[in-house]
Amino acid sequence: MTNYTTNEDTNFVFPKSPTGIEGLDEITEGGFPKGRPTLICGGAGCGKTLLSMQFLIKGITEFGENGVFMSFEEPSNDLSLNVKSLGFDLEKLKADKKLVVDHVRVERSEIEEAGEYDLDGLFIRLAHAIDTVKATRVVLDTIESLFSGLDNQAILRAELRRLFHWLKEKGVTAVITGERGEATLTRQGLEEYVSDCVIVLDHRVIEQVSTRRLRIVKYRGSTHGTNEYPFLIDADGISVLPITSLRLDNEVSSEIVSTGVPGLDDMFAGGGFYRGSNILVSGTAGTAKTTIAAYFADEQCKKGERTVFFAFEESPQQLVRNMKSIGMDLEKHIQSGLLQIHSSRPSLNGLELHLLKLRKLIKDFKPATVIIDPISNLISVGSEQEVRSMLVRLIDMLKFSNITALFTSLNKQNENFRPDLAEESVSSLVDTWVTVRDMEGVGERNRGLFIVKSRGMGHSNQVREFIITQKGIELLDVEMGPNGILTGAARKTNQLNKEVTTKTLQNELERKDREIARKRKVLEANIEALKNEFESVAEELSILKATEALQAEVSQEKKDK
Amino acid sequence: MAEKAAEWQLMLYIAGQTPKSIRALNNIKKYAEEHLKGIYSIEIVDLLQNPQLAEDDQILAVPTLIRKFPEPIRKIIGDLSNEERVLVGLNIKPLT
């Protein structure tokens, strides 16, 4: 029998330096290769410098690894200033002897080349910097500047090769940035020298919305995520969004959360939504989707649960004001810190950035409920496919964190109210789908609400009419007419008709009662008359009988005589 | 040389006694004797001994010759074997 590989081999973990950048460590499965150079390339303004800087700073602040930043482009002061806005204090790190920032100025006009040279000056500088702070992380940003500053390419290339070897020997984890070339990954073909890990950053604009993306082209000796991952640069620096693995093995809860809308709970057999489920509220314009969403938010806040409300159409103030008009006080929840309303135009960011933002919020705020109003607005920033993929990830993320999510979706007004784009993309993913719709009748418009589906829970099949008053949403009782459920004026007419009918019926009854009473009287009178008649007849008969008896007596007397 | 500052102050940065740096030193001495006799000074900086100077003086390549004075500062890198370029670079001789 052959011996298969021992456990020791399979348990081997490639040594890595964690980057501390949110999401990136997940994709690289632990960080950059430890003690080896990593190449980060990309076009102008895609965040190379920032990414490498963050790698250094996180190394210092989170992993206790000091760093050297060798900048070939920006002076040290500029760098400090640039990253200060992201909350990194370079000057302090420098003062604490944890970081060295060295600006290598390569100015072609100042340098004359006369004969052979090498880059020992650079080596010495780097070595000195590394030794000063005992650095284990080094960034060279962008070393390609050397090519524009120096003429002798042959020497440069040889020296670069030597440099990367030297870095490896030193055992420092190096990050080298490079400008993206036309045919090659970098303009000067740096990928030839740095072949352990290559990451490409990309900044593209689709339909006026820019998205930054990151891809690991290669990573020797390690598995890694292969897709393009969107990343975000915000006030906290870079965060990368890994595309979730869609495993669908999240935990489920049987706990019920109330919808907050009086009457709606009763339409569900369980009395509300399952915790951690996704609810879609779809409907045409002006069918009170936002109101239903706000009700749900209000209800959760009342129970003391944190809620995040993403409003893509209204500002927080507007939402609060509008809800006040129906007697709902969102302000107090905001004050108590339970409710956060985030308003932005969907076109402010690419889809992925919205997702990233949400992710960060979920991480920081840890809400139990997330509301997105409306999800259909996001479609304006991406194609159907993109939106779908984003929503899948969004829903996965929410499910994973066991967050109850309510989305509203605006669909176009059409006769047969077929699901609209957003609905089609979402409907198979959501657990509960409530539709609100207009019911147009003669000269009026009414709102109706029904449940399209509710996974794992029985639900009412009725279309319930509801009205919004100053006191809020009110679900009306079902009014059945001869042709189905009645709404609005028809409902009123029907109610009136019903009333009239009952009244008439009652009148009729009373009339009948009176008639009977009268009949009874007549009958009784008749009976009396008949009685009288009978009595008189009987009397007559008795008279006759008496007369006859008298006659018989008389005749007997005559006979006797 | 201490009596008064020379009219031409040159600095040569090297990293140890490598053939290139020795060549460079010999070359610059030769040119200076030829063109700047009596009015120059050459200071040699070994970066291996003073690594901090590499950063301070923005040295990248070795050997590097810097004309500190007269201003503006000029930098010439290499073993200075190309006389023409050195002289042009130091602005001793105009471009022909």
Question: What is the H level of CATH, i.e. the homologous superfamily of the largest domain in chain A?
Answer: P-loop containing nucleotide triphosphate hydrolases
End-to-end Cα distance of chain A, whole Å, is 163 Å
Number of helix segments of chain B? 3
Structural class of chain A: alpha/beta
CATH topology of the largest domain in chain A, anyone? Rossmann fold
Shape of chain B: globular
Radius of gyration of chain B: 13 Å
Mean pLDDT of chain B: 84
Count of the separate structural domains of chain A: 3
Order of helices and strands of chain B: EHEHEEH
Strand content of chain A: 15-25%
Helix content of chain B: 25-40%
Provide structural commentary.
The complex is a heterodimer of chains A (561) and B (96). Chain A has 561 residues and is of the alpha/beta class. In chain A, 39% of the residues lie in helices and 24% in strands. A 9-stranded mixed beta sheet of chain A has the order 5-4-7-8-3-9-10-11-12, with helices on both faces. In chain A, strands 17-16-18-19-15-20-21-22-23 form a 9-stranded mixed beta sheet, with helices on both faces. In chain A, helix 13 packs parallel to helix 14 (384-400) and helix 14 packs parallel to helix 15. The radius of gyration of chain A is 43 Å and the shape is rod-shaped. The N and C termini of chain A lie far apart (163 Å). Chain B has helices at residues 19-35, 51-56, 83-89, and strands at 8-14, 40-46, 64-69, 74-77. The model of chain B has no long low-confidence stretch (mean pLDDT 84). By secondary structure, chain B is an alpha+beta fold. Chain B has a domain at 20-74. Helices cover 31% and strands 25% of the residues of chain B. The A-B interface holds A 102, 104-106, 110-125, 127-129, 146, 150 and B 13, 15, 20, 23-24, 27, 47-48, 51-52, 54-55, 58-64, 73-83, 85-86, 88-89.
